[in-house]
From TrEMBL:
GO MF terms held by the record: class I DNA-(apurinic or apyrimidinic site) endonuclease activity
SMART domains assigned: ENDO3c
EC supergroup of this enzyme: lyase
Region Disordered, residue ranges: 1-21
Cross-referenced InterPro entries: DNA_glycosylase, HhH-GPD_domain, HhH_base_excis_C
Originating species: Deinococcus oregonensis
Highest taxon above the source species: Bacteria
Residue span, HhH-GPD domain: 63-220
Keywords for this protein: Endonuclease, Hydrolase, Lyase, Nuclease
Name the UniProt record assigns to this protein: Endonuclease III domain-containing protein
EC number: 4.2.99.18
């Protein structure tokens, strides 16, 4: 029977009360601090420097869903060949879908991108998102997530990466690693944004570094299937490792 913690089975070697996910918030917040330090030692400091303009970040993040970075970049570059944002709105949706064909699901992303651009133009009269730097964080998140096709992850990435606002984007890697370690109980990516942010200090450079390093750890070690636990710097305090040892099942199972 489920105890409400990370995994439904309570192993003999790790009673539910000993699992991170069953611990109170301050204990899990301390676990995040510990993880942050180890990940920084392993992957280095990551200064928060905007990598591209806000509109570029916004549209690229939509393109990046279930797509490799190389394909996302190729799709973005070809999209820009259609013209400026006004011309992309006016282009036939089939032309937009063709331009972004290196991204997965181009037929559904093309109309979403056009709808997002149209909504920004209608509300702001142009495509300058700098006003987001001045809005309270909750209002900025709300404004972005009200755009068609923009979820909390995309909105958080734009606000953190471009405007150094203290939010914490939870992508598939961040979600998987923090759930397995037991920083948060099992929950969806959407809910994980709020749960993790509640455990973290409102410090944008710290949030950025932790996001990027967790992503790196998920790509390099804590894979979706067959994670490399013997090589993992987090294994001493990882719930999944406490339960399954070096045979942690695929995430979601
Ligand atoms: S010990 Fe294994 S499951 Fe836990 S974080 Fe490391 S790689 Fe992932």
């Amino acid at each position: 029977m489920s105890d409400g913690s990370l995994f439904p089975q309570t192993p003999a070697s790790a009673p539910a009360s000993d699992l991170n996910a069953a611990q109170p918030a301050p204990v899990r917040a301390e676990l995040l601090v510990w993880m942050s330090g180890l990940l920084r030692d392993e992957y280095g400091e990551r200064p928060l420097i905007p990598r591209r303009a806000p509109m570029h970040e916004l549209i690229s993040t939509i393109l990046s869903q279930r797509t490799t970075h190389a394909d996302e970049e190729a799709a973005y570059q070809e999209l820009c060949l259609l013209g400026d944002w006004d011309e992309i709105i006016a282009a036939p949706v089939e032309a937009v879908a063709h331009a972004i064909r290196r991204s997965n699901y181009p037929e559904s992303k093309a109309p979403r991108i056009q709808a997002t651009l149209s909504a920004i133009k209608a509300e702001r009269g142009g495509y300058d998102l700098d006003f987001l730097a001045e809005l309270p964080v909750a209002d900025a998140l709300k404004w972005l997530t009200n755009l068609p096709g923009v979820g909390v992850k995309t909105a958080s990435l734009v606000l953190l990466f471009n405007f150094a606002r203290p939010v914490f984007p939870v992508d598939t890697h961040v979600h998987r690693v923090t759930t397995r370690v037991g920083v948060i109980p099992r929950m969806g990516e959407q809910a994980a944004h709020r749960a993790l942010l509640g455990l973290l200090p409102p410090d944008a450079p710290h949030l950025y570094e932790l996001h990027v390093n967790l992503l790196r750890h998920g790509q390099k070690i804590c894979h979706w299937t067959a994670p490399k636990c013997p090589a993992c710097i987090l294994k001493d305090r990882c719930d999944a490792h406490a339960i399954y040892g070096n045979r942690v099942p695929s995430f979601g199972k």
